[in-house]
């Protein structure tokens, strides 16, 4: 079956994209077969007339956690205890997988056709990835880390990260995670906002350099790239000096850190979305303390500064939401583009390019997806309005296409309080 999407305004995902009116995209066997000025007819095709709407590549979310929704909570839960319960028997494991599958489908129906998970419940993410591939469930393309690697008292210890105390334990844990055939290895090198104990120190170094090196060496030996949670300049230095490939979140960079980035050929994954509620929202609404809000602002400024400096020096910068954090949902990837535009100061076109083709390049899958080109997977997003004029057009897709499968006028469950509060920062 061939499908011709006609009468569309094309945004192709390239850096210098400009709207191309009156275009057609022909899809066959899940791939883009033809991109051209619309012809008078397309015999042998199912024709979908988009009425001039905007057609672009599906978004790519480089940083998220499927095990949490980001929904407002009345009180904080013990994440490690909950993870232990969910992984305790086949019935609760099936429940956990169901929750995570729903999160992945929410990403897809909100316009995200590729996701990269960076810390999840033991083996659940890779199981869902494989179910999507075999058609047993609906979801986006998935690259997964499964469990992350942390240290005693480290970020997310016991929940979406397992603990290692020595170099050999790090190597052994990487090998254990690799048995599930993930797509990358994730390290939790520094602390974060929610586990910080001291004002001004949200990114205190938790994982010693020798453990970072051991984990990276083992991951690279097995053929896996390494991503790392880092929220301080010291963490960036330790990560890059010892083999990390992508710095998640980031911190302010000096000349030495810029040079390390360039020497490693590393990328920065910008995640402004989780920092906005912690740094800017009313603490009573988000459930934060003075300490949390202060440290949230430190991280917010560090992430924005890191992205600005990286872009100024030609270091690749990608986008992810860190969905699952407080007030950071699986349907709000569009907000990350808006924050990137507003706070980092890039154009809307560059934000859209970053969330599509640049993210695909960082993942090493630009030959498969990330732009609207013949030969690539038909991973598409259609909106009523022009996102180059207003990125909020992305918040309610008219249509999502995943490898040729059409989801017309998709709808997802949204949290009114999240919408109400976050819209204040657009």
TrEMBL record:
It holds the Pfam family Amidohydro_1. CDD domains: Met_dep_hydrolase_A (cd01299). This is Amidohydrolase family protein. Signal peptide: none annotated. GO terms for molecular function: hydrolase activity, acting on carbon-nitrogen (but not peptide) bonds. It comes from the Bacteria. It comes from Anaerofilum hominis. Residues 54-405 form the Amidohydrolase-related domain.
């Amino acid at each position: 079956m061939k499908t011709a999407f006609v009468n569309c305004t094309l945004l192709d995902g390239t850096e210098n994209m400009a709207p191309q009116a009156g275009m057609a995209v022909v899809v066959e066997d899940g791939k883009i077969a033809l991109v051209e000025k619309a012809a008078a007819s397309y015999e042998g095709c199912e024709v979908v007339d988009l009425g001039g709407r905007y057609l672009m590549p599906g978004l790519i979310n480089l940083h998220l956690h499927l095990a949490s929704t980001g929904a407002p909570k009345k009180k904080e839960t013990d994440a490690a205890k909950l993870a232990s319960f969910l992984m305790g028997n086949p019935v609760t494991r099936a429940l956990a997988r169901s929750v995570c599958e729903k999160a992945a489908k929410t990403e897809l129906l909100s316009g995200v056709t590729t996701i990269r998970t960076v810390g999840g419940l033991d083996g659940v993410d890779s199981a869902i990835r494989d179910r999507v591939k075999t058609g047993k469930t609906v979801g986006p393309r998935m690259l997964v880390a499964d469990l992350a690697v942390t240290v005693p008292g480290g970020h997310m210890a016991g929940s979406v990260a397992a603990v290692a105390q020595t170099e050999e334990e790090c190597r052994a844990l990487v090998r254990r995670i690799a048995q599930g055939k993930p797509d990358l290895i994730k390290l939790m090198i520094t602390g974060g906002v929610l586990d910080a104990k001291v004002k001004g120190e949200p990114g205190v170094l938790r994982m010693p350099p020798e453990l970072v090196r051991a984990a990276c060496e083992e991951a690279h030996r097995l053929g896996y790239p390494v991503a790392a949670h880092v929220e301080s300049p010291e963490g960036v230095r330790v990560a890059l000096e010892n083999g990390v490939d992508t710095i998640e979140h980031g911190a302010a960079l000096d000349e030495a850190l810029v040079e390390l980035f360039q020497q490693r050929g590393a990328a920065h994954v910008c995640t402004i979305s989780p920092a906005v509620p912690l740094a800017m929202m009313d603490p009573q609404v988000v459930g934060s303390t003075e300490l949390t809000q202060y440290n949230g602002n430190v991280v917010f400024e560090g992430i924005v500064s890191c992205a600005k400096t990286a872009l100024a020096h030609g270091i690749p910068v990608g986008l992810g939401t860190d969905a699952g954090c407080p007030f950071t949902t699986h349907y709000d990837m569009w907000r990350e583009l808006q924050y990137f535009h507003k706070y980092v100061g890039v154009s809307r076109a560059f934000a859209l390019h970053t969330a599509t083709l640049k993210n695909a390049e960082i993942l090493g899958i630009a030959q498969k997806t990330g732009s609207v080109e013949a030969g690539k997977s038909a991973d598409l997003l259609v909106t009523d309005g022009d996102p180059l004029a207003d990125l909020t057009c992305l918040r309610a897709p008219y249509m999502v296409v995943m490898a040729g499968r059409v989801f017309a006028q998709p709808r997802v469950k949204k949290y009114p309080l999240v919408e109400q509060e976050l819209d204040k920062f657009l």
